[in-house]
Each structure stands twice: as structure tokens, then as C-alpha cells.
Amino acid sequence: MGLTFISAFGLAFSVSLHRPTEKDYISISPLKNDSIASVEAFKQVYKVLMSPRCVNCHPKGDIPLQGDNSVIHSMQPKRGKDGKGLYAMKCANCHQQSNSPGLNAPPGNPNWHLPSADMKMVFEGKTAHELAKQLLNPELNGHKDIKMLIAHADDGLVKAGWNPGEGRTVPPLTYAQFKKAWITWLQTGAYAPAQ
Q: Closest Cα to residue 76, out of 99, 98, 94, 96?
């Protein structure tokens, strides 16, 4: 619904009346710089990203890691160009749509993969400062801006870290705590902790 007004100078202008919807209330709030809150939030995020659930699929090399001790994957599959394996050693051969039953059986997800070869997104061995800078660099993070990074917290493969299958530990924060820290970090200026 809109209303039209005539100004004292004879100019017409319209005002649109908009009834707020649920979508309006859950939109992303604008950034507000708060370096202390941002760094503290990233320290929490970093704990999760350094857990085996994240590091194992973000290794230095082209072979994923496995287990709570993050050892080289016993089958030694290679990353491949798209991150989904190479030749007959495709991730989806063992990592099915959902977790396989049994102790330490392959965890599953419909989109199981490593980052692609041209955007490896290495977490293994990174300091908090290095990882924060990498996550913010579109040339290193999959061409994501802040809004896309916020949305990435809801990615199914990210969430799978909290449902790793029998015999594996979950990250040190709950998913809700992680998501809150992730968004806080990004919305308060996305500051990197000091080196």
C-alpha cells in the first residue's frame, strides 16, 4: 500500500507502507565494528575449525585426514579437481547419503567432498590469525562475501560435523554456539586475532 503526498513546493512524492513480515525480522543486521567482540568470537570459531571434524576435510595436502587423531586417510584417496576424489577413488563410493552404521564406519552426507583443487581452504596447521585472514579473502574462500560466509554456516556439510557417526567426537561447541560465534565474528567486523 502506498500514499502520495504533495509538498509545499507542489512536488508529488510517494511513501510505501509496508507491513513487516517474518523475513524482515531475520534479515542480516548491518556490520558494526567491535574488534574485541569480533576477536573473542573468532577464538570460539577457531576451536571448532581446528577440531578433527573440520581439519580432516581441510588438510594441507591432497589426501584427507581421518579419525579423532587426524591421521592420513587409510585408503589414501586423492582430492581430484572438484574435491570429490580421483579416478575410481571417489568420496561418494564410501561416504554415502547418511552415516554408515557401526563404530567408526564412514560418515555420510549427500555432498561429501574436500574443497576443490583450485580453492583448497587449508585449515590444518593454520594459526587463528592466518585462518581468519584466509576465510575473509574471496580469492581463497570460494569467492564468498560476508553475506555468503554467514549463509555458509547453514551448509549441510558444515552441519554434518555435529553428526559424525558412532565413535567420533563432535566439535567443542554445539552447532548453535558455533553459528552464533561465526555470525558474531562476521557482523562485528571480522577481525583476525593478533599473530
A: 94
pLDDT in tens, 117-142: 999 999 999 999 999 999 999 999 99
pLDDT in tens, 162-183: 999 999 999 999 999 999 999 9
Residues 6+ apart with CB under 8 A from 167: 103, 104
Spatial distance between the Cα atoms of 84 and 111, rounded to a whole number of angstroms: 9
Rounded Cα distance between 41 and 174, Å, is 14
Reported as half-sphere exposure (CB side, CA atoms, 13 A), residue 64 has a value of 26
Q: Which amino acid is at 4?
A: T
* β-strand partners of 15: 3
Q: What would the DSSP string read from start to end of 62-103? A: SS-EETTTTEEPTT-----TTSSEETTEEHHHHS-SSPPSST
Q: What angle do CA 16, 187, 176 make, to 5 degrees?
A: 105
CA torsion angle for 172, 58, 131, 148 (degrees, to 10)? -90
Cell of 192: 583476525
Backbone angles phi, psi at 127, to 5 degrees: -75, 165
